Amino acid sequence: MPSKPDQQRLKQIAHLELGAQLHRLPMQAQARLQVEKWVLVVAALGTIRLTDKQTMMRSAQWRRTASLVRDIGSPELLDWTLQQAEIARNIENGIRDLRPRKDGPTIRLTSDFAAARLAKARRVLAWVEAAVASGADQSPGASRVFTSEPERHAGHEEPATRTDDEPG
Predict the structure, then answer these.
(1) Which are the contacts of 144, defined by CB distance < 8 A and separation ≥ 6?
(2) For residue range 75-93, what is the model confidence (pLDDT) as tens digits?
(3) How is the chain split into domains, by residue range?
């Protein structure tokens, strides 16, 4: 489980997310908070020692993992873990899911999910920092869309603009 200060910090971040206060922050601060959150979550998951009991149904294994994940304090991670339990229950009841499912220990799969979210958060932060460095407006509710230079010029022509003196 996360240390007391880490757990308190995760609760603060979750409170910001759930209270819609996160969206009032500049985009760079939002991205930094997401990286911080997932670093704390990945570290907390690394402290959990759990072995799935092979005699348990897969949905029960996921529910057991969810009970441990609940203590970490990340609503997003808990939702994902509970969704895995529901999908496993559906599969056990003969309702096939079209998405491929990975086998393996539930805690490892949960850690893989959190690591992927951390990697994504880091990419978003790098993208936002590059946009800010290039002078993009990062205020909350900014209407300017962040695009990187390669994306903007990767085979896409800028839309032609018409001036008033051109024939219609």
Answers:
(1) 136, 137
(2) 999 999 999 999 999 999 9
(3) 4-153
Contacts of residues 5-14 at CB distance under 8 Å and 24 or more positions apart, as own/partner, are 6/40, 6/43, 6/44, 7/44, 7/72, 7/73, 9/36, 9/40, 10/37, 10/40, 10/41, 10/44, 10/72, 10/73, 10/74, 11/73, 13/37, 14/73, 14/74, 14/75
pLDDT tens per residue across span 111-132: 999 999 999 999 999 999 998 8
Residue, of 152 and 6, whose pLDDT is higher: 6
> Among candidates 135, 164, 165, which has minimal Cα distance to 147?
135
Name the token pair of 17: 């997310």
Q: Does the reported pTM lie above 0.70?
A: yes
